Amino acid sequence: NKLIYQMGTGEADLALPAALMVQEDVDGIDINMGCPKKFSVSGGMGSALLSDVNRACKIIRTLRENLTIPVSAKIRLLKTNDDTIEFVLALVRAGANAITIHAREVGDESQKPAKWDRLVELVQALKKYDEIKKIPIILNGDLYTRKDMIQMKRKCGADGVMLARPALYNTSLFCKPSPPKNNTSSENEDCTKEDEEQYSYKSKLLKSKTSVVQDYINHAVRYQTNSKNVKYVVCEMMNNRRAPTKLTPFLTHNFQGGQTIDKVCKTRSLADLCHLWGVKEEDAMQVASSDKVEQPAGEHRYDDRYFLEYNGFQKERIQHLTTTEEEKKENNDNGGEESNHSSSQLSSLKESAISENTNILKQKEGTSDSIVPSGKRKNDDESDGQNQSLVAAAEDVTKRPKIQ
What is the pTM of this model? Predict the structure, then answer.
């Protein structure tokens, strides 16, 4: 098994210290050049790099020259396939060992289908370049079944697939079938249409949603994960708010113990989650006491209303930013810089709210509705001291013991 560390970064000088800190504990570094979220692009990271090929290439080149492990990049489709080809070629010439391409452009909603036709045409064109033939091209976007993976790889000649939301829906999607008797490979890439049915949404290879969540909670207990983070992930595993609308009828959520998002949100510790999902409580009790640590001042707070009362939750955030903007305008003596930043933040949040409200899904428990948004809440306040701490820690990276 290989562990790849995906990094969000906008500057080579900051990416290198971070990579040096983990290179002894991972098998590769992947640079995220596709995330379109505000928290990412506002820092020059994610999809912001798609419009700055020189900065993107500098990051790849700097890491390749200073690391002993492979460096790859995940991107999105650019406006045209020709633009995307030029960007990919630039990354490869800068030293990228692999490229993952997400089949959407910046601005494409996740509820709309990925652009598979464009992706197939693009990869076929890339594979004609000699310098690309030896570089793995990896597909990403709406590959919710092994059947889709097989067909897409076959159509365009890609070397692999990367999963995000499909893995969150059901991690047993990674379960492989037994090798065919007449084939030494672990998966029959030339399987017939009849054989491909075993790789569909109702594949017998898939585990039940209940057992998948139970497995996750067991791992959370083992590694003493913060219960607020566990709650968030479990709630994400229980809804389809980011899945393409046309696929949601196939992405069922049946839980054997009658668990709902509302019940998950009412839990307050790993022990509570274990009890709700039928996981052995004695395992959870070993960390229950350490799980109830008082939250440091200023730390991001998990708010159940994010899943249960999204409209009111978003309205409150907008109202708070509006008040903050008015106060800054009155007291701003710095040429309007802070006020402009707040105004931009408020405008972005309002646009997000409009998008969210058009994609809200309802998951019912009895006669009550649990409102589920289509977007993910992120903490807007990033610590200015993180980068300085990162660089300072990396200066002593050679003295750090390897994590066992």
Answer: 0.70
